[in-house]
Amino acid sequence: MQPSVEVIDGKDFRRMIAGSYSAFMREHEYINSLNVFPVPDGDTGTNMLLTLGSVTKAVTEAPDEGIGSLARRGADSAIMGARGNSGVILSQLLRGIARGLSGKDTATSTEVGKAFQYGVLYAYRAVARPVEGTILTVAKGIAKGTYRAVRDNATFADILKAAINAGQEELIRTPELLPALKAAGVVDAGGQGLIVFLGGCLEGLEGRFTGPEADFGRMLTVPGITADITIAHPYCTEFIVKRFAASLVEVKRQLEQMGESLVLAPGDDILKVHIHTAQPGAVLESAIAWGTLHDIKIDNMADQHRQTIELGENKSVMPAALAKDRAKLAVISVAAGEGLIAIMRQLGANSIISGGQTLNPPVEEFITAVHNGAAEQYIILPNNKNIVLAAAQAKKLLGDQVAIVPTINIPQGLAAILAFDPDSQLEVNLSRMNEAQAAVRSGSLTMAVRDSTVAGQIVPEGSFIGVIDGSVVVWADSMASALKKLVVHLVGADTSMVSLYYGAELAETDANSLAEVLGKELNGIEVQIYFGGQPHYQFIVSAE
Amino acid sequence: MRTFLNIQIVIDSTANVPEEMLAAHANLQVVPLKIIFGVDEWNEPELTTVELFRLTREKGVHPQTSQPAPGDFVQAFAPAATGQPVIVICLAAGLSGTVNGAKAVAKDFAGQEIYVVDSCTSAIGMIKMAEAALAMAAAGEPARVIAEQLERMAAATRTLFIVDSLEYLRKGGRIGGAAALLGSILQVKPILTLREGKVQVLDKVRIKTRAIARMLEELSREDSLEYIGVVYDGEPTVVEEMMTTIRQRYPAIHVSRAALGSVLGAHLGPGVIGLIFQSKV
After folding, report:
1. How far is it, in rounded angstroms, from Cα A192 to Cα B262?
2. DSSP B37
3. Total domain count for chain B?
């Protein structure tokens, strides 16, 4: 018999998180392999591992404290460290758990069970359009299993087991619900990730995980600022207002005049404030009127260029704000590949976050880019389906400072940057950029990483496949003919230009000669070729 | 046959008025702007854009331009002293100080009828204004009425253009703000326009053919067109295709084309394709 853990405290929670991290260290490659399409993308396992890495680091380094505040630390760091859509969903799960454990020093198994139910609810809400056969189906199964076990007054270990069993039943059903999974012969990767998470929690709770030592080196890398800088708002000021009884709009209005990089995180009659200011005294003076002040921290950011500050209860590294002429509006764009990064810079993107199909940047990198303070407001271009949620998460944390044009591929991102005009208002830009990105048709060419079936036909591993909107639409043995098929697929009656961005693995001369052949075949359409330098994809193609 | 009319029309050389038009109207005269390379100076009509860009390459210096000498305006305004009204049509104030120069000289002719009109455009846009002014003068309209009509035409005229590179506009300081930072990556062609007399970016489009299509799209938004003019430097085939498209789309509207003058060439650089059109006033 396992020891029953009727009263669960902070130490138990810490072990559960460490256990789940350890489980992901073991399982993430397997989760990565649960790929719907035979394309090298969507590293769900890696994304969840890295997200949990942030959580584990925060929870491990925290002082001994109650389960409620520990869970809160974990959730906050998950929100900042979330990578990819699966990471964001995981961070919401942890937020829900933290909500359920809020204010508790210890919790009964029933209370923790309920907190996990909260977590599932939060995860569900994180997705704009819930689709069955995904992580959400599994989450619902977990919620049901948890509910039944809680009702039966089971120990928390048994609650977790019930949750895992119920979740697994749903996980096995995902291929029946989503034809794409069935065709690929896999279960949903995110759902599998949830099961691994719970399994890890159970191992941790029971103290029987034997994972490798955690390596946090991959987490929380933030570009440092090395240039000599003067800081207009040197005091990073943070505090919590409890019994908060003022208007958030009014608070925001007041604080906005007192500094920059303002982050307000409201909770139930509680408000966390983060601001860079020249007058921390004046900020606190104003805040006294809103409630009682707690956990006041004031750091002079001039002391070091890279300063560790506490954002809420969460540790994160943030560079000092640059005091220079700030633009009203700037673009943050995501890209992988030196060619694409250079193109985006030259088109006028203010900062480029490195990331793409197989490397999803954490929410924190968006926050860092915004905190660099080059502009008052930012428009984020995720340029990838799997980065859209992380960008949305950043927006939630930063509020009106950030807007998103939800581009899901590079050509859309380029079209959006092209439509950007820093001298125009935000609203005008958003509407123009949205319109511009919607007018681009694009696809990409890569090599099938395993055998697969598309429209009833077998596409062998090593074939060149053309992907449009996440689906394989064409394939061929040779790159040239797959590229031609893909381009023909994209070209419409009103197409006047085809752009090819060739990847890192391709030689310039080969790429140019492919483009030349294509140019001759496409009468009246101008074919343009540029070095993109992106990994895995031989070509990114757009037709306009 | 030359007719003598007492209203004098003065136009600056950036309009690039054709010889035949000048020959047909004794009361139309051109005041030249100047092209300057170091210490060498040319009156605009003495230099074609081909020669201008050849000199730019050979000398390795960026050409400067200058508004007409005040003396040229004094001479052109002389008929005013004998009671003849003078109407002056100048290129957009944002591109050149010519309008202000003309106005300054006109002040010395206090009590005499001199109307200085900012065309808010140049090239064909100015020629069309001169044609209208000449016709109205011939019909016996008073100078004040003509000048007012020209102001209305100026307000109803749109000037769009693309350039091979923004280098000339940047070096001449005629494009500012974010637009000056635009690179040519991905063959981005900014669609430039004169707004409030200044060069501004209307839109950014990739590759020349799509940029031309974008200008024509802007043209199609105009309801009642008075005329359409195409101004260009080099590249006759592209311009020929553009003319054909316009004539097919607007069979009932007068369409004309003209080569770019050297002052605008010095401002905008080689490869300019411009579209100037006016809605009816």
Report:
1. 70
2. E
3. 2
Per-residue confidence of chain A (544 residues) as pLDDT tens digits?
344 447 899 999 999 999 999 899 888 888 888 877 667 666 788 889 989 998 999 998 888 899 999 999 999 888 888 888 888 889 889 999 999 999 999 999 899 999 998 998 888 877 666 778 888 889 889 989 999 998 888 899 999 999 999 999 999 998 888 887 887 788 889 899 999 999 999 999 888 765 444 444 333 333 322 223 345 677 777 788 888 888 888 888 888 888 876 767 766 677 777 777 888 888 888 888 898 888 777 776 655 333 333 333 233 333 333 334 578 899 999 999 999 999 999 898 988 998 877 678 888 889 888 887 778 899 999 999 889 888 998 898 888 899 999 999 999 999 999 999 988 899 999 999 999 999 899 999 999 988 888 888 889 999 999 999 888 999 999 999 999 999 999 999 889 999 999 999 999 999 999 999 999 999 889 999 999 999 989 999 999 9
The distance of B182 to chain A (nearest Cα, Å) reads 7
* Residues B168 and B101 both lie in one domain: no
Query: Residue B125: inside a domain, yes or no?
Result: yes
How would you class B228 by CB atoms within 10 Å of its CB: exposed for 0-12, middle for 13-18, buried for 19 or more? buried
Task: Tell me the chain B residues in contact with residue A497 when contact means C-beta distances shorter than 8 Å.
Answer: 206-207, 209-210
Please indicate, yes or no, whether residues B62 and B163 belong to a single structural domain of this protein: no
> What CATH code is carried by the domain that includes residue B71?
3.40.50.10170
What structural domains does chain A harbor? 7-205 (1.25.40.340), 235-319 (3.30.70), 327-438 (3.40.50.510), 441-543 (3.30.1180)
CA A192/CA A247 separation, integer angstroms? 43
Are residues B92 and B183 located together in one domain of the fold? Answer: no
Assess whether B117 and B170 both reside in one domain. no
Among A342, A347, A352, A346, CA closest to A372: A352
Strand duo A259-267 + A107-108: pairing: unpaired
* Whether residue B134 is found in the same domain as residue B187: no
- Cβ contact A262:A252 at 8 Å: yes
Task: Spell out which residues of chain A touch residue B188, defining contact as CB-CB under 8 Å.
Answer: 347, 418
Look up the ipTM and state it. Answer: 0.82
Pair B254, B232 in one domain? yes
Last residue of a domain, one of B120, B135, B155: B155
Q: Measure the CA–CA gap between A54 and A528, rounded to whole angstroms.
A: 42
Residues B185, B258: one domain? yes
A245 touching B (Cβ < 8 Å): no
Q: Do B186 and A347 touch (CB under 8 A)?
A: yes
**B141 lies in the same domain as B163:** no
Examine residue B1 and state whether it is found in any structural domain, yes or no. Answer: no
d(CA A383, CA A300): 36
Interface of B with A (CB under 8 A): 177-178, 181-183, 185-188, 201, 204, 206-207, 209-210, 213
Range of the domain at B40: 8-155
Residue A418 touches chain B, beta carbons under 8 Å? yes
Count CB pairs under 8 A between chains A and B.
Answer: 42
Q: What is the pTM of this model?
A: 0.73
CB B260 within 8 A of CB B51: no
Residue B2 placed within a domain: no
Q: Which of A342, A348, A544 sits opposite B181 (nearest CB)?
A: A348
Written as one string, the DSSP assignment of A376-429 is EEEEEE--SGGGHHHHHHHHHHHGGGEEE----SHHHHHHHHHH--TTS-HHHH
